[in-house]
Amino acid sequence: MKLIEIADVIRSKNSGPYEITFDVIFKTRELYERVCEKNAINKENFAKLYNIPVKNVMEVVHFDPVGAVKVTIIRPIPSGAFGESDVYGAQQHAPLMGMDIDI
Amino acid sequence: MKELCILSPTAILGYGFPEASFIEGMKHKPDVIAVDAGSTDPGPYYLGAGLSFTDHNAVMRDLSFMIPAALEAKIPVIIGTAGGSGAKPHLDWQVDIIEELAKTKNLSFKMAVISSDVSQETVLTKLKEGKILPLHPAPELKEQDIIDSVQIVGQMGVEPIIYALEEGADVIVAGRAYDPAVFAALAVKNGYDRGLSTHLGKILECAAIAASPGSGSDCMIGWVGEDYFRVDTLSSARKCTVKSVAAHTLYEKTNPYILPGPGGVLNLTNTVFTQETDSAVKVTGSVFEPSNPNYVKLEGVKSAGFRTVSICATADPVMMNQIDNIIAAVKDRVKSNFAGSIGDFKLDFKIYGRNGVMGIFEAGGFPQANQDSKPHEFCFIIDAVAPTQEAANTICSFARSTLLHYGYEGRISTAGNLAFPFSPSDFKVGEVFEFSIYHLMEAPEPLEHFKVEIRRCGK
Asked: Which residues, at least 6 apart from B2, have a Cβ–Cβ distance to it below 8 Å?
């Protein structure tokens, strides 16, 4: 299934000028737990989805209080540098919506 | 321990709030009104240019409610990262607005202005002493980055604000400040737990963005007690839920359990969120862990040159099918005409309709769009950056005219390749900037780099 079918928040935003962070909040506790158990969102598949090196995925954190998975990557370029397409980093989430999730 | 109440009118000063929500907030008899006025989110331009990303009239509108209400209730108003970036020109802009307001409304009060500018000399010395830490993934700081920086600010914690409160300031205009600091300062001064106060500040700094439905232009209110804090909305249109409040802890942060800031780390490993009423959430267990030594986060920008952009578009399928070749050819022609004669320039074409939004990722991060649907229009933004405005104008104009009349393979529409929505077609942006410093500087004394100036405002 696609991530958009099991999450009610999928968003991206700068975390400072050198990182973009992605939050996925799942519709139910059970879905969150299954995603964690299967490690369904990981550095490798995230890097593949965004066509970036695995080492540029800084962290994948499972945040229990909300039932959320958070992925933070090194920004391809610093915010506002030449070649920028999204200064706030708030519109980089679309590929994540279509991510295939096997749970 | 009696609760301390903090009113947060809006996510960013100038983003507005419904008057009814603000009045409702004042009914709770808050001990302080605090507001965040800035961010690095809008990019490096505003710090470099000394301008605010918010608007004079919008900031005036918000303050015209906040300051008179606070003076009447005899509580302080605290503004953080004034003017959007918190450097001297931003503080001057903010102070002018407040003085204009005092004059118009015939108000008189004690104002504290806290500077956050850090001189090149200071940063150069600290670099030589090995007292600058890189903040991964920002690159390591080099001497030249410091020399090239046109503005450098340090991020203050609660200490300079507490100092201003102790001096009896009615209105505090703080330069670059850690977002939660303006909310947490009074609570920390009055002996409330720093971890809980800071975490409450984290939630209040974006006001009703932490509610459901979220809004960047509505008020929120919070109370800190001995071993908890709670937050509530001020409009029946929205509620705080465990999910909305806890989710806000994730917002814009790398790791939601460990949140570094001035003076230490906010550790949320044992934080518990509980639905207290229909619209209020109670939070316990957030802990502040002091760091030794103390660090100040620095932000600096340097000039990136001057920019001119042109906006144009096409709906021609023949052209769209070979757009990559056409743009490569246009770039080559610009290069062969001007390389070496006009200084180093950069030329970029953003193609909306094909990876315009996600252009920072190689080959696009959105393969689905390429497969499933074909756009029937492309919008182009031609972006030229060069050492002078004249040079940027030349590059942009030449790229635009070349693209307009480029005779690509199989062209049928020979009158012109582009639709321009505007005359003039090219926009002179002026000088633009890029981040040059985003590092931690060792600063044993938290007040050291922040000067508090007390003055009288109004008659």
From this structure: none
- A57-63 and A7-14 strand pairing: unpaired
Which candidate, B57, B20, B21, places its Cα nearest to that of B207?
B21
DSSP string, A18-49: TEEEEEEEESSHHHHHHHHHTT-S-HHHHHHH
Residue B322, token pair as written in the block: 């070979």
Spatial neighbors of B365 by CB under 8 A, at least 6 apart, are: A49, A50, A51, A92, A94, A95, B358
| Non-local CB neighbours of B323 within 8 Å, separated by 6+ positions | B351, B354, B378
Report pLDDT digits (tens) over A53-92: 999 999 999 998 889 999 999 999 999 999 999 999 999 9
The pairing of strands B4-8 and B32-36 is parallel
Would an 8 Å CB–CB cutoff place A58 in contact with chain B?
Answer: yes
pLDDT value for B367: 53
Q: Which residues of A49-67 are buried (b: 16+ CB within 10 A; e: fewer)?
A: bbbbeeeebbebbebebbb
Closest alpha carbon to B435 in B254, B300, B329, B262? B300
Both tokens assigned to A95: 């590929």
Let me know: does B187 contact B34? Beta carbons within 8 Å. Answer: no
Dihedral (Cα; B27, B28, B34, B36), 10-degree rounding? -80
State whether residue B183 sits within 8 Å of chain A by CB: no
CB neighbours of B73 closer than 8 A, spacing ≥ 6? B26, B29, B30
Q: Mean pLDDT of all residues in chain A?
A: 95
Q: Compute the C-alpha angle B294/B126/B440, nearest 5°.
A: 45
Kindly list the residues from chain A whose CB atom is less than 8 angstroms away from the CB atom of residue B44: 17, 79-80
Low-confidence residues in chain B, pLDDT < 70: 363-373
* Structure token pair of residue B153: 């600010």
Chain A residues within an 8 Å CB radius of B365: 49-51, 92, 94-95
Query: Residue B272: enclosing H or E segment and its boundaries?
Result: strand B272-275
CA dihedral sign, ordered B85, B91, B93, B97: positive
Min Cα distance B310 → chain A (Å) is: 15
What's the pLDDT at B289?
97
Q: Can you read off the two tokens belonging to residue B1? A: 């321990």
Backbone angles phi, psi at B432, to 5 degrees: -125, 165
- A103 part of contact set with chain B, CB < 8 Å: no
For B52-110, how does the pLDDT look when each residue is reduced to its tens digit (9 = 90+)?
999 999 999 999 999 999 999 999 999 999 999 999 999 999 999 999 999 999 999 99
- Stretch (H or E) spanning A8: strand A7-14
Is residue B11 classed as helix, strand or coil in its secondary structure? Answer: coil
